[in-house]
Structures are given as structure tokens and as C-alpha cells.
Amino acid sequence: SSAAGSGALIMPVERYELAQFGFVQVRGGPERHAVRRPALQVVNLPVWFTWEQGSNLTVVVHLDVSRLHFQTVAGRRTQKLTIVAVLRDSSGSFVTGKRSEFDLNLTDATFQQAKNSFTAAMTLKAPRGNYSVRAVPEDALEGKVAAAAGTVQVR
User: Fold this and answer.
1) Which of 42, 50, 116, 123 would bridge with 147, disulfide CB 3.0–4.6 Å?
2) 18: helix, coil or strand?
3) Which pLDDT does position 43 carry in this prediction?
4) How far apart are CA 72 and CA 92, in angstroms?
5) SS3 string of the chain?
């Protein structure tokens, strides 16, 4: 089956990808390039993605923390998210990927600031070319996932 009007195939989330890559820190602010929304998004988490295309691909994760489930520990809202992004070539072969983990440990004041706009970014380095990209976040508390897939060009 395909996503409405996009021609993209809906593919199951490949959970094995979550353990396939090493730890990478999430950057604070993405470089600005052409922004493109994914052709497919499967959402079980309050997350959406955009791709920023340039000499590298930046995967930008937008999180609606006001709809995310948190555990309260010592007066702080805590949650751990794991995000995996993968680039594949036209034959479906793995080109590159990254796995980022980050712990949210928010005071009430920080939660109020972050609930309207919280983003994280990962940069994937790859040779020039056209690729398919897939991004999968997972929350540690409930095991909820989301997935987004699309096509991108690294220039």
C-alpha cells in the first residue's frame, strides 16, 4: 500500500536498526539548507521530521513535548528518546546511519519553554547522490515509535 498521494511504500519499522549504530550526540542547532518534508510518516509518538539537504543531510526531529509521556523523578519530567536515521542508495543498500540517544530531564520552567518547540538534529555525511532516508525515534518509557521515510539529494 502507499501513503496518500505520495507513491511511497509503507514499510514496517525495522527495530533492529536501533541497535545497529554507535552513540552520537545530538547537535543543538542545524545548519540551514533546503528543507523537505518526508513522503511518509508513521506516528505513534508526537514527533515529525524534516530533511535539510545540502552538502550533507540534516535530519531535524520536531517533538511535541506537551503530548509526550514523562516519568516524574525528584520534581523533574524525565524521558529517554533514541533516534536512528539511515541513508540507503537506489538499490536499497545501507550507505550511512546514526543513532542518537538523549535524556530529557526537564524542570517545570524548562518544560513550559520546550513544549511549544523542541527540535534536535543529526547530520548524515554521504557522497553526492540521491538516497532514500528513514528516521525512527523510540521512547524508553512506553516503547512507542514513529517512522518517516522519503527521498533526498546530497549535493
Assistant:
1) 42
2) helix
3) 59
4) 42
5) CECCCCCCECCCCCHHHHHCCCEECCECCCCCCEEECCCEEEECCCEEEEEEECCCEEEEEEECHHHCCCEEECCEEEEEEEEEEEEECCCCCEEEEEEEEEEEEECHHHHHHHCCCEEEEEEECCCCEEEEEEEEEEECCCCCEEEEEEEEEEC
Higher pLDDT, 105 or 3: 105
- pLDDT of the residue at 116: 75
Place of cell 509521556: 69
C-alpha cell at 14: 525495522
User: Cell 500500500 appears where?
Assistant: 1
Cell of 71: 516519568
* Phi, psi (rounded to 5 degrees) for 18: -65, -25
Question: Smallest Cα–Cα separation from 87: which of 58, 62, 60?
Answer: 58
Q: Which three cell numbers stand for residue 145?
A: 515509535
All three cell numbers of 83 = 533516534
